[in-house]
Structures are given as structure tokens and as C-alpha cells.
Amino acid sequence: MSNRQSLLKGLLFIGYSIVILYLIFSGKMSKYINPKMNYYLIIASIIFFAMGLNYIKDTFKRKHQISLSFTRKYLIYFIPLIIMFLLQPLSLNSSLAKNKGFSMTKNQANAIMKSIDTIDNEKKSGGDNDKSNSNNSTDKADEDRSSDKNDLNEKGNYIIYYEGQWVNIESLDNIIVTEENYMKVMEALFMEPHMLKNKSIEITGFVLRNDDFADNHFVVARGLITCCLADSAIVGVMATGDNFDQHEDNQWICVKGKLDVHEYNGQINPIIIAEEVIKTPVPEQEYIYP
Amino acid sequence: MIRIKRTEDMIVLVVLGLIIIYLAILLGRFALDYYVLFQPMVERIHGILTVFISILLDAIPFVLLGVILSSIIDHYISEEFIQKILPKGKISGILAGVILGFFIPVCDCFVIPVVRRLIKKGVPTYIGIAFMLAAPIVNPVVIFATYYSFEKIIPSMVLYRTILGIVIATIVSILLYLWTKDQNIIKEGINENQSCCDHHHNEHDHGNHEHHHNENTNSFQAILHHAAEEFLDIFKYLILGAICAASLQVIIPQSLLTRFNDNSVLSILVLMTFAYSISLCSTADSFVAKSLVGVFGTSSVLSFLLLGPVLDIKNTFVLFGNFKKSFVIKLIILVVGVVFLTAILVDKLLLAGGGL
Predict the structure, then answer these.
(1) What digits encode the pLDDT tens for the residues B80-90?
(2) Cβ atoms of A161 and A180 closer than 8 Å
(3) B144 contacts A138? CB cut-off 8 A
(4) Nearest CB to A119: which of B60, B147, B152?
(5) Is residue B209 part of a domain?
(6) What is the distance of C-alpha B58 from the center of its chain?
(7) Is B254 left (phi over 0), alpha (psi -120 to 50) or beta?
(8) Does residue B249 lie within any of the structural domains?
């Protein structure tokens, strides 16, 4: 390996090491992947740095052979590096979203509805096996998730973390949806839309419309990242109110209103009858990380 | 090698082209009144680049850990030791590979360099492949994620996935053994161009393992160097895979999928294609699969969950980079075939009547 090649590889690894830290500390990283991955990436950054130094150290050692045509071979490695430094990541709420469709409003709600009837039967037949299997894996899987699991005790009983304590969502009159309780509230909303009817709700998200929505209807939506953007999804709840058409697509808003149910695509879904809509800036935590 | 270099160059050109178009239009947006015409295209390219980086960042730590483990194996574990602990029978060997997958919670990014190293170290191909196919599905983290995603919708999904994952890994390994016998499947020559390097520890791969043991003084540096070289090898294919996956993801609307959800055979094929093209991590795919349940039948979602972790467009590139072309093609045919047949069987036998 020539000195030049060593130097190039050294710079490459150090470049990746720096770009990872830059993305994390500039906050751009949270638009690419779930922040729980940050620890792995910091470790990767340290290893890259060590690898880079290791190469650069070689540069000052003896030479074996000299070759000049290697630069082109490394071009491909520098492309992602340059993109990482320069690209302003596209938000999920624009063109990416249109490709995805939203999962809670259509597919997932549909799935959940269908399955409610079958859950009881399933529990009876395959329940025992299921439990022993899950217990094994619970021990080994990360603690966070296993404690999360306990939040949902039985069907129709949704315990959410609300203003510093665990409460049953059914006992609340006014539900303020935050990043922390977002998924739990959504689950409760779509599983038991009737249970939460007439409760007050306050929720933040961006305006998302589908072609088949009626006038003055839109979804208050959030992007969801489990690992990376490849598995991202759009989650949201329908809202309606006077003069809703004046709100532009992708505008971030906070909607306050009363919950009700409506039928969409043959499914019973929750809907917010809005009393107040406030324009808000993009929240600090743009995505929900389940 | 020459042909691969050409594809590389082509991809480099395509990516550079995308960036240049993107930048040019971006720069021109203030000057040109008809920017509006280009806006959808700019957003598409912007989207592709964003998803591309996202997939890369997600995979980098695991690939890195994989190559480091591979280098450590190379450095510290001798071929004699591996021969000594290996099960002698073929079936018991395959089962050992599958069980090893259960205890090592890794995804496909991580597992390929490790398997390649193990096979180079003398582990029989069928054991290595059994491990490679089982690990991304059968490990506890994935089992738990699947259980968690499906506990309310289809509680038995986690059982189907885990058990069938084991069955498929076993069947494919056996068939692959019958098809390829003891051929050498490792793509040689990847490290050749680097093996002439001036790093005096690095006699590389082909024999000379005792050599390493004598130089404990600098083994850390040697491992680091070795891992870095291997990382560069794999990273190249990862980049190609990620750019393909990102393009497919942004260009093909997911609503297109739902047109094929009436026929169970067709929807299995559609979801297998979907799983192959979007290249999700196996810990995250159950969440996406969950959102498909209402639209597609259980058997097709199951095929999505069984195929995605083992085979997708991203790791196809990595496989081609590590193993011989003919072997990878055989592997793909067998995995796709067995997963498809399994899903059909599940659909016809276990789920007769449509839903669970």
C-alpha cells in the first residue's frame, strides 16, 4: 500500500468519525434515525477515529510500492461523506409522506378493528405458548420495552404516562397528547374510539390531506421513526372544524377539541371536532420514536 | 473484478448526477421562474438522498461491529479450535448454527462478515449459512419486537415467525448443501489488493494464522487495521445497496401495493417483493408489517417477515461482494422459493378460511 493510499483511507475514516459527531450534535441525526441509536453511532465514531489514526500513522512508515491510480477507487466512499456534511435532511411531512400514506388512519385501524374479535379466541388457543415464548425474550430484550409492555394490562385498559404519573386514559377528561404518550394515546384512540368519545383533547401535528377527504377535514399527523427513515410511518388522527380549508398542507398546528367517532373507508375512526386551532412552529422533537 | 468496477463507476456517476441536478436546480431556483416545474423532481432526489443517508447511518454501527468481531475471530481463534468444537453430523451442525443464531442477537448487516470469516476459518458452509439465515429472525430482540408489535393484532404471529424462521433456515441450508456440496463459496481476491500492504502483521487470511499469535504486542492495531480493510470492502456494497433501496422507496408509492391484496398468492409475491426492495432492519420490520396487516392477509405479512431479514436489496449487494456469484444466486433462489412455498402452505393449511 502506498503512503497516499494510507493517507486517503485515514482521512476517510476520520471524516466519517467527525461527520457522525457533527450530525448528532447539530441535531440532524434525529431526522435520520431514532436517537436510541446514537450510542451505537458514538461508539462507531470512536472506532472510526482509531482506525483513521492507525492508517495515518502508517503514512509515516516505510513505503512498499507506489501506485497512483487508487484515488478513483475511493471516490465511492467519499460520496456519502460529502452528502452527510451538506444535506439538509428532508422532513417526513413533504414528498416522503405522500408516498407512504398514513398507517393509523387506514391500515392499522382497520387491522386493529378486525383483530379485536379474534383476540379472545386466539388467547385461548395459542395463549400459553405465546406467554412462555415472550417471557424468555422479555428477559433478554431491552428493559425499556419490557417495562413499556406492562403499561397495557388488559384489553380496554390503557395506562398512559400523564403529567408525571401513570393514569388510566379512561379516567381523564382532558387528554393532552405529548411526544411521550403519543403512541399509547393513539393506540387507545383507534382501539376504543367509543370509550374516549366526548373527552377533550389537545394534540400537535402537521396538516395532512388525502384526495378523498371531505371539505374542512384533515389529519393532524406526526412522523414516526422506529429505526431509520426506511421504516418510518405517518400516524395521525382526523380533525374537522370551521374554515379548516384555510390551513395549508404541512403547516404545524395545535388542535384543541372534543373527540367523536366517524366513518372513514368503512371503518369507525376517532375524529376531533376542533374548537381551537393554533399555528405552531415545528416542534423541537419533530418525530415520534416508539 | 473488472465488471464490478464498472458497475461501481456507473453508480458513482448516477449518484453524482443526482447531486449535480439537485444542486443545479437548487441554485437556479431563485433565478428561474419555472422552478415549480422541477420542484417535484427536486423533492424526489432530496428524498432519495435523505433516505439513503438514513439507511447507511442505521447500518454503519452494526457492520462495524461485525467486521471487528470477524477480525477478532481471525486473530484469536484457530482453525484447530473450530474443528474441535464443531458438531460432526451434518444435521446437528445445521441445528447448532440455528441455535447459535438464537443466542447472538444480530441483524443481517452484522452477520455476513462474521459468517464469511467463519467459513474461511473452516466452518462448513451449511453451518455458516444456517447461522446466517437464522440469526436475523430467531434472535431474542427480534422475537420480542415481533411479539410487541403483534400482541394485540395477531398474537400467534411471533410463533409463526420464529418457528418458520428456524424451519426455513434449516431447509435452505440442507438444500444448499445438496446443491453446492463442498464447493468453495467465498469470493477470493477481495482482500488481495490490500494484502500487499506494508502492515507487517497483515499476511492475511490465507493460512499464516500462527503468525498473528506471535505478535501480541500490536494485536490491537492489527485487528483495527484488519477490521478497517474489511469494513471498506463491505461498505462499498452497502452504499450501492442503500442507494437502490432508497430510490425504490421514494419512487414507488406504497399505495400501489394495495391493488394486489385480493389474491393470496399474488399478495404473498407482492409483499415479498416489498420486503426485498425496502431493506428494513429486522428489529424494525415488525412495525411496518403491523401496518400491512389490515390490507393484506396473515400469510402474506408472514412472508414479508420471513424474507425481509434474510434477504433484501441492500444485503444482496453485500452478499455478492463476499461470496461467489453462482452461490449467491443459488442462495437467493432457494430462500425466495422456500419462503414462498412456506407462506403458501401456511395460507392453505393453517389459515384455511382467510383470517386467523
Answers:
(1) 887 787 777 88
(2) yes
(3) yes
(4) B152
(5) yes
(6) 13
(7) alpha
(8) yes
Question: Is B355 part of a structural domain of the chain?
Answer: no
- The C-alpha cell of B261 is what? 391484496
Question: Span B95-112, mean pLDDT?
Answer: 80
Sign, Cα dihedral of A54, A57, A62, A64: positive
- Which residues does chain A have within 8 Å of residue B141's beta carbon, measured at their own beta carbons? 137, 140-142
Partner-chain residue, chosen from A31, A76, A98, that has the shortest CB–CB distance to B12? A76
> Which residue from B250, B282, B254 is spatially nearest to B144, judged by alpha carbons?
B282
B283 neighbourhood in chain A, CB within 8 Å: 227
B239/A79 touch (CB, cutoff 8 Å), yes or no: yes
What percent of chain A clears pLDDT 70, i.e. is strictly above it?
69
Domains along chain A? 3-89 (no CATH), 97-288 (2.40.50.140)
Query: d(Cα B322, Cα B314) in Å, to the nearest integer?
Result: 13
Residue type, B236: K
Can you give the pLDDT at residue A249?
Answer: 82
Give dist(CA A168, CA A191) in Å, integer.
15
In degrees and rounded to multiples of 5, residue B227 shows phi and psi of -65, -40
pLDDT in tens, A248-258: 888 899 999 99
- Chain B partners within 8 Å of A55 (Cβ): 225, 228
Per-residue model confidence as pLDDT tens digits over B181-226: 767 777 765 444 343 333 433 334 443 433 444 444 578 888 888 8
User: What sign for the dihedral angle of Cα B279, B282, B284, B287?
Assistant: positive
Cβ-nearest to A37 among B58, B225, B253? B58
Q: Which of A163-172, B61-70, B128-137 has the lowest mean pLDDT?
A: A163-172
Set of chain A residues whose Cβ sits within 8 Å of the Cβ of B159: 126, 129-130, 133
Amino acid occupying residue B180? T
Give the per-residue pLDDT at A154. 45
- Residue in A with minimal Cα distance to B248: A230
Cβ separation of A133 and B158 shorter than 8 Å? yes
Higher pLDDT, A158 or A123: A158
The verdict on a CB contact (< 8 Å) between A44 and B194 is no
- What separation in angstroms does the CA of A102 have from each of A233, A264, A265, B95? 7, 13, 13, 41
Overall domain count for chain B: 1
Which residues in chain A touch residue B249, judged by CB atoms under 8 angstroms apart?
99, 230
pLDDT, residue A61, reads 65
pLDDT in tens, B121-160: 888 888 888 888 888 888 787 888 888 778 777 788 888 8
Domain ranges, residue B190: 2-253+260-350
Out of A31, A80, A227, whose CB is closest to B58? Answer: A227
Over residues A79-109, the pLDDT tens digits come to 899 899 888 888 876 556 666 555 444 444 4
The Cα B243–Cα A146 span in angstroms is 35
Residues 6+ apart with CB under 8 A from B333: none
Residue A125: is its pLDDT beyond 90? no
Reported as a pLDDT band with limits 50, 70 and 90, residue A157 is: low
Which of B152, B277, B290, B305 to probe the A interface (max A CBs under 10 A)? B152
